[in-house]
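My main concern about presentation is that the manuscript never shows what a single data entry looks like. For the editor and my fellow referees, an illustration may be useful. For illustration, here is how one protein appears when written out as sequence plus structure tokens:

***
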Amino acid sequence: MIKLNEISTDPPKDLERDDIEKVTKKLVDRLGELQKVMQAERKHAVLVVMQGMDGSGKDGAVANVFEECHPSGLSVYSFKKPTEEEFAHDFLWRVHKQTPAKGMIQIFNRSHYEDILIQRVHGWIDEDKVNQRIDAINAFEKLLTFDNSTLIFKFYLHISYEQQKLELQERLDEADKHWKHNDNDWKEREHWDEYMRCYEDAMKRSELPWTIVPVDNRWYRNYIIAKTMVDAMEKLDMQYPPLERG
């Protein structure tokens, strides 16, 4: 049983930041190498799901962890409020067309999980619909895995209630972060406990595992994400294709 309030949002106390940042740099470099081989081989795809409360550092994680990946093999998509056309289709319609082709890394900054998080927190869907959507999500992710050789990483960026307040306040106080400010983020913060309950339930009922990433210290966030991805992608045993001669 996952209880997020019992999981630390800080790194282990015996870790030294300088040491971890050196390791992270090597992991980020290696991730870039693996991405280039995957793009050339075109046998696998990677989908990275980034979920977390406002201020948990999704944009920063993307910028830091994937900085050595080649832009031609990397795409980032951020799911906003559905458009009128998207509302007229099933909730996964807009998601499926953003999934990665073989050879590509696709990052979801927020994802299909929004449809069982924010909608559930605010009571816009009932629990029967929640259950149906969780089943659909599990089937959808299974489809991507077996039918398109997609390796799926699901990262929950675990920020503390106290740290989130600091992050949101920075958006008010620092000019270079004003563009990130949204009054609604403070309103959503009022539903913190309910969001935690819904996240816990989503992770518990997911057939593919989530990685809970402590993010109060951003250097540790980068390390966990990079290490998780490199460890899994190394197991794919990817190779550059041989030279083809006419």
About this structure: The beta strands are 45-52, 74-78, 105-109, 150-158, 211-214. The domain at 17-234 is CATH 3.40.50.300 (Rossmann fold). The chain has a mean pLDDT of 96.
